[in-house]
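Lab notebook page, bench 4
Experiment: in silico fold of construct C2
Operator: M.H.
Input chain length: 183 residues
Purpose: comparison with the prior construct
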Amino acid sequence: MKNLIPPKLLGQFQERPVPLKDIVDFLDSNKDVSTAQLCRFLDIEPSKVYNYRGNINRKSKDGQKSFSDVRPKAATKSYYRYSAKDKFNLVKEYLKNNDEQKSELLRKYGLYQSDISRWLDQVEEASVHVLGRRKTRSDKKTDEQLKIERLEKELSEQEKTTAKLSTLLILQKKTFDMLKKND
């Protein structure tokens, strides 16, 4: 990390307190250094930098430099929650970028490396769960299909029984009629 900071600025950063304007200017000119990394090095809260950027963004309406593309969590009214689809798209975007673009992406969306790592673990866990499920065999019948087959079989047996009883009834009537004629 020290290699990324020019020696002149490194000396300036070691003076206390470091002006927030200098920190923001340095971060804007060095996209490969994240706010969280620099704040850890300087031992200050990242929320101070995010709030400072948010205030600059609100005040710069006259066409000066604006940080409107940065949406830090601390500057929002409440904690911003990303949808599952947004998280997945951010992870995909993060993985296909190089280191400089990754830092810029984290800064732009107000994220930390740990957020991406956690989401990546969740994506992996969900993938393993979904891909680990066995596909149901097409020749194996469900409980509903088995019940339907059983009921259809019972119905056909009852229809056969009804047909036999109908035949017996007809034969009985004919026999009765024949016996009545013979009397």
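Observations: The first helix runs from residue 7 to 14. DSSP finds eight helices and no strands in the chain.
Next step: discuss at group meeting.
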